[in-house]
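Pipeline run #58 for the internal structure catalog. This entry was flagged by the ingest filter as a single-chain record with no existing model, so it goes straight to prediction. Upstream metadata was stripped on purpose; only the residue string is passed forward. Reviewer on rotation: M.T. Logging verbosity set to normal.
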Amino acid sequence: MGFGLGVSPDQRATEAQIDEEMLALVTRLTNDINWYMRERGMTRADLATRMGLSAGRVSQILGGGENLTLRTLAALSTALDARFDVALTALKGEDAYTSRSTEAGQAVSHYHPVSRTEPLENTRFSRSSHR
């Protein structure tokens, strides 16, 4: 990200946090894909053949330095005959979103807990049952 004129410190901090979260997501995803392949004795060349890509391109994807698109993730899951399991969890316990009701003038809390028993980095792929 470039730090141009007129960019507030809050905006810079938000951009840095987004970049950090993106790197963490890509790392977790590529680690899980590599684990899944290793558990099944699948090589990057095998994956490349299934995806119709070069082995070099698959190495770029699995190297972790890319912004993986949803299409790329879908192609990976199809080639692996697997499905990604994704969950969104609050960073803090009992995190709540509060908004002001314009008509009533009182605060309304919207809390939507996510039931999740394991962190994303421990999530593994599930076999697709509809292939």
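catalog note: The first helix runs from residue 9 to 39.
catalog note: The chain has one domain: 9-124.
status: ready for reviewer M.T.
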